[in-house]
Design a protein that fits this description.
By secondary structure, the chain is an all-alpha fold.
Length: about 210
């Protein structure tokens, strides 16, 4: 909030009203002072998170660019492109969470939307990466997860664009999909590990 000099030594009253239908909300943290001082304060407290986010963004871009330039000719692993995309989305999300870009550019609403969009976009590349690593491209379950991630972003984008629902109101779908993907990956990975151990044990018996 930009304050005028004429407001000096006057009482400032801030009234917060919930713009959503549900009752529980998280009250934001208020910081008073010049904008430059607030930005410096955020940089001091979120320096490590900001460095990690920028480093991951550079790494993700390098993975994606290397795949599309020399990856196919050099027979790189197909999962590199999906891992790179996931890293980019995660880096954007983590960087926006520091609130430093919003303070520096003064576009809080736009940065907030980018935060939710990057979070929703994480599901699809990680599902595609798992499909490549586990070699289950034709699996109906993982194809369903991929479609869920795509539809979650597409539908929430349309709802946000027309003002029918905010990203925050549809974020529970992203959380539910992400948790389901994690549990499915753990179960499937455990199943593959057991099968691999049985296969190794059977080979040892044949040798003996």
């Amino acid at each position: 909030v930009q304050m005028q000099e004429g407001y000096g030594k006057k009482t400032l009253e801030i009234r917060i009203r919930n713009c959503y239908d549900y009752g529980s909300v998280k009250v934001p943290e208020f910081t008073c002072g010049p904008q430059s001082a607030i930005v410096v304060q955020q940089l001091n407290t979120k320096t490590m998170s900001l460095i990690i986010g920028i480093s991951m963004l550079v790494l993700g871009l390098m993975l994606v660019i290397s795949w599309f330039t020399i990856g196919r000719r050099m027979h790189f692993h197909e999962g590199i492109q999906w891992l790179g995309l996931f890293t980019i989305y995660f880096a954007v999300w983590s960087t926006m969470e520091t609130q430093v870009p919003a303070l520096m550019f003064g576009r809080e609403l736009m940065c907030n939307r980018i935060t939710f969009m990057s979070l929703k976009l994480m599901v699809l590349p990680i599902v595609c990466f798992i499909q490549v690593v586990y070699q289950v491209k034709g699996s109906r379950l993982w194809n369903a997860f991929a479609w869920m991630g795509f539809l979650d972003f597409a539908v929430s984008f349309v709802l946000q664009f027309f003002g029918w629902a905010d990203y925050r109101e549809t974020i529970w779908v992203t959380h539910l999909t992400g948790i389901s993907v994690i549990f499915a990956a753990m179960i499937y990975g455990g199943k593959l590990l057991i099968e691999r151990r049985k296969e190794i044990a059977s080979r040892k018996r044949r040798v003996c």
